[in-house]
Amino acid sequence: MTDKSDRNFDDLAQRFSRTIYTTARGKLRLLALEKDFSESNIELDGAQVLDLGGGQGQFSLSLAQQGAHISLCDISQEMLTLAQDQFNQAQQPLIAHQCRLQDAANFFPNTYDIVLNHAVLEWLESPFDALPLLTQRVRTGGVLSVMFYNLYGHQWRQLMNGRTHAPNGANQRLRDEGNAPQHPLDPDAIQQALEAEGFELLRWRGIRCIHDHMHQKIRERIGQDAVNLADLEAGLQEPYRRLGRYVHLLMRKIG
């Protein structure tokens, strides 16, 4: 497995902290993840959690504040520094190592109650090759939470932006700057691959399936709370969930 094109966000860590995780779309992402864990009755108190490619650790921190013990790795030292700062400010312990996803087993050889992998697969050169690296870290009966950039949502967005000739493509400037994911992923293919690894589906959610396709002026008129409520409801319903910018799969290891 090669990682020659896997994306390292050292150069964008500070920008992400300002422009993604504090924005309405970033807050909606975290809200959706928290809702999925809560409504799926995932036990957090005392849970051992491994966040693979955890970046700044926003979601992991929310789990830590509910009693989970967090181990986190990322390829970007800048991201890890931001994660450690956040955990320190919240007075929560964190075990963190800088490493590639492909090398995580060298630092985290055990299995875990919960393994997280959020907004990572789409940046890898070989996303499907990475799936066993995630599944092997989950204990039997444990939970895998995978969130990734959605092929269907990407295609729809490109069509709505007039790219009828190339809906699978992306803005070339963003590609050149390294801000566009290399590989939007087919959620059905990801689900099937994880089921083949011995997992059963607990929840399938589209994230930002309303927000990203609603005109900004309409969002401003009805208010972000109304947008979030609509997005959270539609994100669990066919066919709307398939238009989400991201897909979240919550799966339990049964074998």
Q: Give the mean pLDDT.
A: 90
- Classified in CATH, the superfamily is Vaccinia Virus protein VP39
Strand order of the largest sheet: 3-2-1-4-5-7-6
Q: The CATH topology, please? A: Rossmann fold
Structural class: alpha/beta
Short overview:
The chain has 255 residues and is of the alpha/beta class.
Helix-strand blueprint:
Layout: H1 13-19, H2 24-39, E1 48-52, H3 58-64, E2 69-74, H4 77-89, E3 95-98, H5 104-107, E4 112-118, H6 127-135, E5 138-149, H7 151-160, H8 172-177, H9 187-196, E6 199-207, H10 216-222, H11 224-234, E7 246-253
Describe the structure.
The chain is α/β, with parallel strands linked by helices and 255 residues long. The protein has one domain: 3-Layer(aba) Sandwich (Rossmann fold), CATH 3.40.50.150. Helix content is 39%, strand content 20%. It has 11 helices and 7 strands. The protein has a 7-stranded mixed sheet, sandwiched between helices. About 3% of the residues have low confidence.
Which terms would index this structure?
single chain; 255 residues; alpha/beta; Rossmann fold; 11 helices; 7 strands; 20% strand; globular
